[in-house]
Input
Amino acid sequence: MPIRQDDNRPSRRFGLINLVLIGFGVLLLFSNFLPNPANQVPRVPYSLFIDEVNGDNVRRAYITSDQIRYELKEAPAEGSPTVLATTPIFDMELPQRLEQHGVEFAAAPPQKPNIFTTILSWVVPPLIFILVLQFFARRSGMGGAQGALSFTKSKAKVYVPDEESRVTFADVAGVDEAKAELTEIVDFLKKPERYAAIGARIPKGVLLVGPPGTGKTLLSKAVAGEAGVPFFIISGSEFVELFVGAGAARVRDLFEEAKKKAPCIIFIDELDAIGKSRGGSMGIVGGNDEREQTLNQLLTEMDGFSGKDKPVIVLAATNQPETLDAALLRPGRFDRQVLVDRPDLSGRRTILEIYAKKVKLAEGVDLDRIAQATAGFAGADLANLVNEAALLAARVNRTAVEQGDLNEAIERVVAGLEKKSRVLQADEKKVVAYHEVGHAIVGHLMPGGSKVAKISIVPRGMSALGYTLQLPTEERFLNSKEDLEGQIATLLGGRSAEEVVFGAVTTGAANDLQRATDIAEQMVGTYGMSETLGPLAYDKQGGSRFLGGPSNPRRVVSDATAQAIDREVRGLVDRAHDRALAILHHNRDLLERISQEILAKEVIEGDELKGLLAESVLPAEAQLVA
Ligand code: ADP
Ligand code: MG
Ligand code: ZN
Output
């Protein structure tokens, strides 16, 4: 892929000149301290010198700050030297004493420093410092010959799509919703005038959210490829590096470059490296100033440019959207979020086709079977899978990839992924299927303004193994007590299904229980929905709600009230649990049927799901009394 470095950097020769200069300077500096053998005279103790003076045996003395050199009238012994030196000590009476004994004496003139050495001693240390910086910058950099002072330059690589290696939407598969959203972005970039003419504001930031390897980077390259505009690519972690303040400077530099090349795209990979919530670090003293500065600079830059007919669109990718700072997600910044998720069965099939075209495939290879066996694989895993199979085939000197190679490759890739716990075993998959169908059936029968739209057992996101999607059928701002009780029952539907079918529970329901308990607590503590406790707000509102910290500490209540609250919350959850169990026992056959269906298909949605769920019946004992 044609990823090019911007090459307006100072050449490597600068470094060489530096080196010569510094070597020279160091030599000069040290030459001052080297002993000069020409001036060597025997050194004697100070007391001896004083004795000689008192004995009127000194003819003359020459006093400098670090030595006194003196000449004797006559040598103490035959042939011994008459010129001697001693180290001066602080002695105010020395001049007087010398005068009394008729010694001719002189002091050295104040030393005139050599201008050349002075300049060098000012210039050399900074040069050494810069050299050290340069060394680090080069080591952490891209290996290029970056100049000494360019470490604040953005390290963005410009990706210029050329004809044959251009990435287009055709190279990305299995993420159709994301593609549809990004097609619009391409349109903005191609015909900005059309949007400007009508007064529409072109989105500045689009955030691609999804697990690793699902094609976020690939998608953004495809956007650049489709729109035919320059594409700056930089990773969030490259902003935050060694030098404090460099991150912010790099952001500034990057946007400056981009504005010159507009219309263009800036792609910031791993946005979470700089965009972590600032509130999160409040507890820790100081937080991470460098990252915060970089983030602030990014926000400023995104607010700063308008570029009506020369748009700069910032794409960013993250797999931890929940850690991002709320300020990043505000309108005018990354106000659009595009989910790039792991592909479902048909998506995997299409991705496999793309990569199968790049290798020689034997006749009769069944890609459908491979797609079925690879639930939970991301696009990158599938690409890897095909490559592994080709390697296996090549190793045994086959000329084409066969089904067996692909099967073996699956096992290899799975082994790698299992360590990251992203692939479900067959029995786990079964539990997840019943669990999700449990949510769906209970959710369908409970009141409230939403309907079950989709059940999936493709592992999604970071923690969910499967999911049941409920979409609101009408916009609601108020929830009745019955709605909330229904929500709790729905949340417990998953775990209840596990109990009904397997008679055992797994850890898969932790998040459901958390949310169910939260709702029950709010019903009692915040909404005053408990009959025994009355319409009192036992939870305190406020606190740091905007920063998303844990809210609602309890008001000061008596022990008895606290116990009553706990009992009441427990009662709500227990009743909802019983209700869910009753519903699932009553619809046991349907639960079985839908679960088998979903185990075969992985996803059920739309009319099919509607038809199946319409068969469910609400038993009398699970009725909510309004
Ligand atoms: P991410 O940025 O989401 O972590 P990448 O875009 O870097 O993932 O994906 C890595 C590689 O995996 C891509 O270069 C591509 O070869 C392959 N890949 C991932 N997702 C897809 C997809 N949906 N369609 C085709 N290829 C994909
Ligand atoms: Mg990536
Ligand atoms: Zn669940």
Q: What stands out?
A: Confidence is low (pLDDT under 50) at residues 1-13, 141-149, 280-286, 542-551. Residues 172-175, 212-218, 317, 351, 354, 379-380, 383 surround adenosine-5'-diphosphate (ligand 1) (CB under 6 Å). The domain at 426-625 is CATH 1.20.58.760 (Methane Monooxygenase Hydroxylase; Chain G, domain 1). Residues 52 and 58 are 6 Å apart (CA to CA).
